[in-house]
Design goal:
Elements (H helix, E strand, L loop, with lengths): L1 E5 L3 H12 L3 E5 L2 H10 L1 E5 L4 E4 L5 E3 L10 E4 L6 H11 L5 E4 L6 H8 L5 E6 L3 E4 L3 E4 L5 E4 L4 H10 L4 E4 L2 H21 L3 H5 L2 H21 L14 H5 L3 H11 L9 H7 L10 H11 L4 H16 L7 H7 L3
Parallel strand pairs: 1-2, 1-6, 2-5, 3-10, 6-7, 7-8, 11-12
Antiparallel strand pairs: 3-4, 8-11, 9-10
């Protein structure tokens, strides 16, 4: 299986590097700054289980051009949601017609965009449950112990086998709509990580931030209820129970959280990283998707709407407002 990682950033490069370390044919297609880091330092991948692998630059096939998609059986699409449409046109132009596209993206709406533009190709929804950090000198670290969920496809079993061999937990699901909405509940914390400017573990250790997240998830669940979607669990807990867990007192929450997910002390959200790197936020595909669907269904979503406004203001300013949990509760009207 020849694999192209299109939109190699934190997630894509970590996945690609993990596969390369196991001897797989992989090309990374990304921005010039990543290529320069790899050329100068090679590529280092590590995880919170203590594994670390250094790959020399000559082991990495890297390209800045989508032309490198040609000749590959599988494309792992890792671009930001805001770039989905342009990436789809590049795939249509350069990829083999029988290449299978796995959308390894956050949020709701990417599959519809891809399927419309790539009408003659197979597009497979995929959820990445883990957090990845892009450290200096082309070092990429998997900071949580969750894995990848692939939609059902003829190529999914072989791809899952390769990913598991590369130490990335991987499963296959026939219910990806429910999985995507379940992951959306967790991704609602991405925005709060931008607004707090704290490591995820420290932020989630503060009950006030958790209360804000619980309110946002409750709104999301109300929207899903109106859409008759039953979200699948990502990890060990159903999204329906997450708000209750988030509202637990700090000492109790810490005990429960340890059984739910292992998390590195330095883990941050991808949206926080986007702010640091001057990229556009994916907020319209996360909290914004809840607001948009809520408006269609007449389900109120004031907390998610307020979070959207705060995040957009932070990106306009180019820095986090470093709001406390109590300040956020006040700003969303609680």
């Amino acid at each position: 299986m020849k694999i192209a990682i299109f939109g190699a950033g934190s997630i894509g490069t970590l996945v690609g590097g993990s596969l390369i370390a196991q001897g797989n044919h992989v090309v990374l297609i990304g921005r010039k700054n990543l290529g320069k880091e790899i050329a100068a330092n090679g590529l280092t991948i590590s995880d919170l289980e203590g594994r670390s692998t250094k790959l020399t630059a000559d082991k990495i096939q890297f390209s800045e051009s989508a032309k490198a998609l040609a000749g590959h059986d599988v494309i792992l699409l890792c671009v930001k949601c805001t770039d989905t449409e342009s990436a789809a046109h590049e795939i249509a132009k350069h990829a083999d017609k029988d290449a299978i596209v796995y959308s390894m993206q956050n949020g709701i709406g990417n599959i519809a965009i891809l399927s419309k533009i790539l009408e003659n190709q197979e597009v497979v929804p995929t959820v990445v449950g883990f957090n990845a950090l892009w450290l200096e000198n082309a070092q990429f670290h998997r900071a949580t112990d969750a894995g990848i969920i692939l939609g059902k496809n003829t190529a999914s079993h072989e791809l899952a086998r390769l990913l598991r061999k590369a130490h990335i937990p991987t499963t296959i699901s026939a219910h990806m709509t429910e999985v995507l909405w379940g992951k959306l509940c967790l991704n609602l914390n991405n925005a709060l990580n931008v607004l707090s400017d704290m490591p995820l573990k420290a932020q989630l250790g503060d009950r006030s931030y958790r209360k804000v997240l619980a309110i946002c998830i409750d709104e999301a669940l109300a929207v899903m209820g109106a859409k008759k979607i039953k979200p699948e669990k990502i990890g060990k807990v159903s999204p329906n129970y997450i708000p209750t867990i988030l509202n637990l007192p700090d000492p109790v929450f810490k005990i429960v959280a340890r059984s739910m997910m292992k998390m590195d002390d330095h883990a941050r959200s991808s949206m926080w990283e986007d702010l640091q790197k001057g990229r556009e936020p994916e907020i319209d595909y996360l909290n914004g998707a809840i607001v948009k669907e809520g408006a269609k269904l007449h389900v109120p979503t004031p907390a998610n709407a307020a979070i959207c406004d705060l995040v957009k203001a932070a990106f306009k300013e180019g820095r986090s407002p470093q709001l406390s949990g109590e300040q956020l509760l006040e700003l969303i009207g609680e």
